[in-house]
Every structure is written in C-alpha cells, then in structure tokens.
Amino acid sequence: MTADRVYLDWNATTPLRPQARAAMAAAMELAGNPSSIHAEGRAARGLVEQARAMVAAAVGAAPRNVVFTSGGTEANTLALTPGLGIGSQRIEQLVVSAIEHASVLTGGRFPHGSVATVQVSREGVVDLDHLRGLLAGGHPALVSVMLANNETGALQPLPAIAEIVHAADGLLHVDAIQALGKIPFTVNELGADLVSLSAHKLGGPTGVGALVLTERLAGLEPLLRGGGQELGRRAGTENVAGIAGFGAAVAAAMAGMESDMARIENLRNRLEANLRQTEGSVIIAESVPRLPNTTLVALPGLRAETAVIGFDLAGVAVSSGSACSSGKVRASHVLEAMGFGPELAQSAIRLSLGWSSSESDIDRCLKAWRKLAGNLTKRDHETELERF
Ligand SMILES: Cc1ncc(COP(=O)(O)O)c(C=O)c1O
C-alpha cells in the first residue's frame, strides 16, 4: 500500500502482517513435500503442523480437528455437506440465515430446494423465534449462522442459537471468518460443530482457510479426493507457504487483539460520531453489538458506487456493501433481508478499520465524506429522504 493512500476496506482483505510475510518467505525456501518422509519433507510438515497448532489454539480446538482449505469459501462449502451427523443420525436439510456470505447462501452441496432461510431483524440479527419455528417438528437440520456479518459487523446471538439447534437434534456451522482476531471466542463457547476461518481477514495471505471440526461429528464428505492429506478430509499437497503465513498471522492477531481492537473501536466511534453529523445519514445496525472495526453508513441520495469512486479519487479505499458484490449495481442481500428499501440499501458504504488505521486516516476519510455529502443537491437529498 502506498503511503499516500488510506485503506478502510479491511473486511474485504487485510494487508499482509510482517510476521506472515516472514513465515511465508522462510517456507518458500523449503524444497520438501510435507507428505515425504525425508528430512526436507519433514521440515515442510513441521511448518504445516506448527501453523495448525496456532490456528487450533486461537479457537480452542485440538490441532487434529483443523482442516486446511483454499480459503473461507472452500471451508464453507466443505462444511455444508448433506449426510453429516452424530452417531447414526444423518442430516439431510440445511437452514441458513438470510445474511450469510454468498458461499453459504448457495447451500454448499445440499440439493436445491432443501435449504430454508431464517429471517433477521431490522438490525441484522437472527430471529430466534423464526429459527425455532423452522426446526420444530422437521427432520434434524444443519444450521449455518455467521458469528459476525461482513457488511454490518452485527454479532449473532451464539450460543443461544446453538442451544436451539442442539435441542432440535441439529448441527451448527458457524462462519467465524470476520470474527477471528477481532473478538474473542472458542469453538466450545459458540456451541458450534463446525467453524470456518480465512487467513486474509486477519493479516494472512489470500487463498488459505480452515474448517474446524468437533470430535463427535461424522460423515464429512471431502470435496477434493486423491491423496490422503489432511487425514483424508482434503486431498492435495498442502499450500505450505500459505499455511505458514496463516499460522503466523493468527498468532500475531491473537497476541495484539485486545489492545488493537480497543484502539480501533475508539477510532471507529469517532468516525461514526462525525458521520452522524451529516443530516440524513444512517449508521446501520448501530444499536446491536457489532465488530469493533466496522461501520456501514448510508446517506439517501448518495449512490454507493459513486461514493466509492469519490473516496478512491480522494485516496481512500472503501467498499459499497460487501466486496464480493461490489461492481454490480445491486442492493446487498444483507440490507434487503434487514428490510431496507433499495434507496437506502444502494447508498450503503462500508468503512472497515484494522491494526494500522490511524487518527489521520479517519480525518482523511471524513474530509472526503463531507465533500461527497456536500455535493448532493438539496433536491436529491429531499427526494431520496421522502422515498426512504
Ligand atoms: C463472512 C465471510 N464468509 C466467507 C468469506 C469468503 O472467504 P474467502 O474470501 O477466503 O473465500 C468472506 C470473505 O469475503 C466473508 O466475509
């Protein structure tokens, strides 16, 4: 990143942590295949297992329950397997919340038509009564609910969700990709049976992630078949450098989490206090517990796509809704599920901070925001507010 840029899109991807870069550079010097039994192979295996222990420790899991994948999308797809179960009971239906990432909403490997959707409140929090209703009387389901939403930052009420799911003999998958390194949690505290993680949201490289399993789970069908890597749960020679970078990034993120996040939350709160001064601006999900680094702000009349370009020209990188859907002039499915109309949903801008965000980044961002908001004609603004 160049010095004159301000990066406020950390929920899309974070910069690589120096610890991750160093671990990856060292791993790339190794020649061995981690499955080979000679010294070179054992050295590569050592790095993979060291990283596995670091990832496992971060979420309170046993290292053997961590399966490395090519990222969060693969971890989510691997988790959503029909036929998962405990003992002889097998699960054939999937329930997902309406605000999940696209990689969960598509239903993994569940057949089309066997996926039910749980509603969320206006603040983007899963409706527990609706979940109870969906699970009542039906076959046991695999339920997939994220810990923190990537667009709003809203935290979901786990382990209350886990209690409901397990009372209905179901299994719970938690996409914790946005939460790892930002808020403390363990797999046990969540009450989850499967947890997805991704390296590039906390300072590791893109293209590496993990699915964390629990002992009692049976029936996980591999997505990739071939060699016996990852205890037969994911074939293919491991991405040694990427995995080493993931491990180093997780360790660094966990070590600095408490102080980094307290500082980041203060910055975010100052940012929001200033954004609120613009008449008509709305901070979405502001009244529920949220990630400390995320702000989703909307200003009816200011189109998000235009605003993102305006910010970019001012040297500030932000996102319109989720990065995966930016570029398309379509309201985010998250805001639609929360009941916002297209006018507000299409003006939502996500500002997400990270460990190197500074006071001057917030000042630059606010300067660009005031300019963009000031350019709105009074008429545009009033028309949009009436429609909203
Ligand atoms: C909540 C959530 N789940 C899943 C993913 C996908 O992860 P990856 O980019 O590693 O495939 C993302 C990334 O945008 C995310 O924010």
Automatic annotation (TrEMBL):
It catalyses: (sulfur carrier)-H + L-cysteine = (sulfur carrier)-SH + L-alanine. Residues 254-281 form a coiled coil. One of its GO terms (molecular function) is metal ion binding. It comes from the Bacteria. Its cofactor is pyridoxal 5'-phosphate. Pfam families: Aminotran_5 (PF00266). The keyword ATP-binding does not apply. Keywords: Coiled coil, Iron, Iron-sulfur, Metal-binding, Pyridoxal phosphate, Transferase. This is Cysteine desulfurase. Catalyzes the removal of elemental sulfur atoms from cysteine to produce alanine. Seems to participate in the biosynthesis of the nitrogenase metalloclusters by providing the inorganic sulfur required for the Fe-S core formation. The keyword Iron-sulfur applies. Belongs to the class-V pyridoxal-phosphate-dependent aminotransferase family. NifS/IscS subfamily. Residues 6-364 form the Aminotransferase class V domain. It comes from Rhodopseudomonas palustris (strain HaA2).
